[in-house]
Amino acid sequence: MKIGLINRSDIDGGAGVAALRLFRKLKERNADVKYLVGIKHGDNASTMLHYKSDFYAKIRNFIELLVLNKRNGKFPFSLCEFHFPLKLMLKYHKIDIVHLHWIGGGFISIKSLSKINKPIVWTMHDSWPFTGGCHIQYDCSNFKHKCGKCPQLKSLQESDLSRRMYNNKNESYSKIQKITFVSPSRWLAEKAAESSLLSNKKIVIIPNGIDTAKFCPKDKNEYRAHLNIKPETKVVLFGAVYSTSDRNKGYAQLLEAFNLQRDLEFEIMVFGSENTGVNEISGKKTYFLGRIWDENMMAAIYSAADVTVVPSLSENLSNVIMESLSCSTPVVAFNIGGNPDLIDHKQNGYLARPFETKDLAIGIEWMLFNSNISQLQENARTKVVKCFDIDLIADKYMALYNSVASE
């Protein structure tokens, strides 16, 4: 049984990270598995690029952006209408089970899925598989019907681009003989089941996994010394890919919370965003760490912080939350999406009322000056080891692969 994990990028974004972690663990177990991507950023020799797929993936994404810009559409929205030789790629690598991850950004056309005569497992890293094109539906409920009048496209037309995409998916899904959708969180599984596209499809819940041996508590002052941060200083960590520019990551909400805490003494570390020439946020000394690719370095950064704040407006199952907890650093986040799967309120973190920045500020202060912090740290690590260790997740996926192969 040869398994093909397919993702647009090998390591860029949460889906790529999750897929790569699963691939490494399956490979470590001597499973017959390939990791097939459209764009390669890392140096993993086992990651496979199809012929010139890096070049063509970027071209397709560029064309998509031109089409969307004409309709006022902005990321996160994908069309995936352009040709990609998926069937040829699967035949070349002799894939028996197709495991899709994030295929947006013009990577793979939705119509090509209906031509695959192989069992498909599709891990949903966002809402795109059951919407007319958006990766984050926010407050829109049109996906429960047939999309149309898409808020992201600023459309007032029923038969708009999102309706056309919906129809394409509906037609393709009806032709696929064996497909199982996997949701990493309970929240996304519920949303998918409410959708008109997937309401009659098989949906199972398998979380993303993490190498808890790599993401583990480090010496708290090891990385602090690198930045000349004193051992007694309180440190708040915030970060994501494009952490200060991606609206969904909640940087604006974080600033509001920090502005309510001008009297508190703490410093801030930010990863995922380059320094824009400032060394303070809301009057607090701030260290911009940039993009961090090395997981051992990330573990040291999490360990150096007293609390990680994840103020995202929408999250499926956050890698940042999972990584931080695994390093025994509690997390403050809004009580949305898959966050409650990871955070037990006031046990290993703090779940603020959705988008109430005052409550987010209260959570940060509660965490920074909690007299029971050692217990919170222990609970954080225990939760991840017990529920999200990559060995446990690999077991669940192997069981699923065997199940769909025998159907």
Sum up the structure in keywords.
alpha/beta; 14 strands; 407 residues; seven-stranded parallel β-sheet; globular; 37% helix
Brief summary of the model shown:
By secondary structure, the chain is of the alpha/beta class.
Termini Cα gap: 14 Å
Number of strand segments: 14
Assign the structural class, choosing from mainly alpha, mainly beta, alpha/beta, alpha+beta, or little secondary structure: alpha/beta
Low-confidence stretches: none
The main sheet orders its strands as 3-2-1-4-5-6-7
Beta-strand content bin: 15-25%
Principal-axis shape equals globular
Q: Roughly how much helix do the residues carry, as a percent range?
A: 25-40%
What characterizes the major β-sheet? 7 strands, parallel
- If you average the pLDDT, what whole number results? 90
SSE string, helices as H and strands as E: EHEEHHEHEHEHEHEHEEEHEHEHEHHH
Tally of DSSP helical segments: 14
From the alpha carbons, calculate the radius of gyration and give it in angstroms.
Answer: 21 Å
Give a written overview of the molecule:
The chain is globular. The longest helix is centred in the first third of the chain and has 18 residues, at about 55-70. Helices cover about 35% and strands about 15% of the residues. By secondary structure, the chain is an alpha/beta fold. The strands form two sheets. Strands 3-2-1-4-5-6-7 form a seven-stranded parallel beta sheet. The chain contains 14 helices and 14 strands. Helix 8 (about 250-260) packs across helix 12 (about 355-370) and helix 10 (about 320-325) packs across helix 13 (about 375-385).
